[in-house]
Write a structure and sequence with these properties.
One of its GO terms (cellular component) is nucleus. By secondary structure, the chain is of the alpha+beta class. Helices cover 27% and strands 20% of the residues.
Length: 380
């Protein structure tokens, strides 16, 4: 396993211009990412840019993806390619400390350098909701891409390389003696190559696709009292008390939290293994929202998509859109840290949705009109 340093290190064969930049958004209303006020270690809390990607020739991209075993569905348009733009906003909310981390890379090739058989365009996004301190969330944000691209299955089997990366990053964090390995984090990532997007989730962050105004959930919240997670927990000897794993943690999957895990290599109720969804992007897929549970505690997936779509139709700016979602969550009395990423798949704003008029004209009979009049008078 590669040695993990405090800074993001490029994998072997990758040029040294690899850099992860902290996203900062700020408005006149004071919504901004908190870069200070981080909690002390072993804190008692248990709950927990807009850059368009360069698009190569379509035929070149199709041959690259086909060589990797990635093909477009027969019912899709083979000439469609997303143009990736993103914006993010993070706010500590009413909490004393900011424990969230996130990452936005709209152009992976530019960030990682030239890799053999590395398809382009590519992008990577992640939200990491820390608890019990920031060590776990910060470590995973800085190292998760490295573990993905260094995996032996990358890029021929992306799902396996992402799963391995989550588990390797979790184990590597346990080996970091200088960090508080009892801190933990949920992890939600989205890796995009051409038209293919793979969303991986361990925890209760959520990714939601905006598809012509309709919300399509791309991840499942890992709560201890959900049927599948509760069955898995109890099978491995754990228990759920009042919605908490072993009475301690409000999520059933997380990286870190090594005070609650079994020795490396053995299964335990608290899992770092992500669940994944693969999707071939189409023209109807307008944008994606990735957010920590602080957003979803006060907004439904459909409400967030509706709000985001209205904002994008107004100004077509994913960063302003993410800021507005954070502001809306605060208006709804969110009680947690708030981190939101909005990823647009086109340079254009979402189009207006035309509702076809019904050609069948409806009328009401005189008898029906009289009955309606009587009913209205009775209610007055």
């Amino acid at each position: 396993m590669a040695t993990i340093t405090d800074d993001v290190s490029p994998p072997q064969g990758v040029s040294q211009n690899y850099e992860i930049k902290d996203e900062i958004c700020e408005s006149s209303d004071g919504i901004k990412q908190m870069t200070s006020g981080k909690p002390p270690r072993r804190h008692s809390v248990v709950r927990h840019n807009s850059i368009g990607s360069a698009i190569p020739g379509v035929s070149h991209l199709e041959s690259e993806l086909r060589a990797l075993g990635i093909t477009s569905p027969p019912n899709g348009k083979s000439d469609y390619l997303p143009v990736l733009r993103s914006g993010s906003c993070a706010e500590k909310g009413p909490k004393q400390y900011m424990e969230d981390e996130h990452i936005c890379i709209d152009n992976l090739v530019q960030q990682l350098g030239a890799l053999a058989d590395f398809p382009s365009p590519g992008a990577f996004y992640g939200v990491f909701d820390g608890h019990g301190g920031t060590d776990a969330a910060s470590f995973i944000r800085k190292n998760i891409i490295k573990f993905i691209v260094e995996d032996t299955y990358f890029p021929t089997c992306l799902e396996k390389s992402i799963k391995n990366a989550f588990l390797k990053a979790d184990n590597a964090f346990a080996d970091e003696c200088s960090l508080d390995i009892s801190s933990g984090t949920t992890a939600l990532t989205a890796l995009i190559f051409g038209r293919m997007m793979i969303v991986a989730n361990a925890g209760d962050c959520r990714a939601v696709l905006g598809k012509r105004g309709r919300a399509v959930e791309l991840s499942k919240d890992h709560k201890p009292n959900s049927a599948d997670e509760k069955a898995r927990i109890e099978k491995l000897g754990g228990a759920v008390y009042d919605g908490y794993l072993n009475g301690q943690l409000s999520v059933s999957r997380a990286l870190g939290d090594w005070h609650m895990k079994s020795p490396k290599g053995s299964a335990c109720p608290l899992s770092a293994e992500p669940e994944m969804q693969e999707r071939i992007l189409a023209e109807e897929d307008e944008f994606m929202i990735m957010g920590c549970d602080g957003l979803w505690d006060v907004m439904s997936s459909q409400s967030a998509v509706t709000t985001a779509r209205k904002e994008l139709m107004l100004h077509n700016d994913p960063e302003r859109c993410s800021r507005e979602l954070v502001r809306e969550a605060l208006k709804r009395h969110a009680c947690d840290n708030l981190t939101v990423i909005v990823v647009c798949f086109s340079l254009d704003p979402p189009p207006r949705i035309e509702i076809p008029q019904n050609k069948n004209r409806r009328s009401i009979s005189m008898e029906g009109l009289q009955l309606l009049k009587v009913a209205m008078e009775g209610n007055s």
